[in-house]
Amino acid sequence: MDILFITLMIGILIIVCFIFRRWFLFGKKQNLSRLSSPQEINKEIIDNKPKGKEQILNALVNERLYLNKNLTLSMLAKSVQMTRHSVSQIINREFQMNFYQLVNQYRVKEFENLLLRIGNLEKANIKELSKQAGFKTFSSFNNYFKQIKGMTPGEYKKSLRLPSLFQDENI
Fold this sequence. Notes:
This protein is mainly alpha-helical. It has two domains: about 60 residues, no CATH class; about 70 residues, Homeodomain-like (Arc Repressor Mutant, subunit A), CATH 1.10.10. About 75% of the residues lie in helices and about 0% in strands.
């Protein structure tokens, strides 16, 4: 009788544990998948969109992170205390471009500002200014500059000099 009772109790205990385990795991899986679904992530991004966009702009503009030639999406995400994925989604949705396009847009603008601050354009070294603007390589600078401005950096530099050739008080 004791063996039958013990066997029956063990059987009931196994069944209860099995049912509880399935219920617990199934409930957990369902809950985790609900929290990490693309819809939930997008909702979180949309709800925090203005805040996230402001944080990204603050890091890029006020902290001038774009001047770091080794800047990565992960570094920007860490700076704004968000996940890489969230920062990427905000950049894609709010700026309609990817991380590198956004950063390089700021770098090209920095190059323009550096070039304009130089009094004598003849002495301006485009390669050196591109490094000061945050570009790692001169070839990537040339490619992005041409994509953004529609002309090479040299052509842009020449275009800045042209107006001074035609300034004449007698005309």
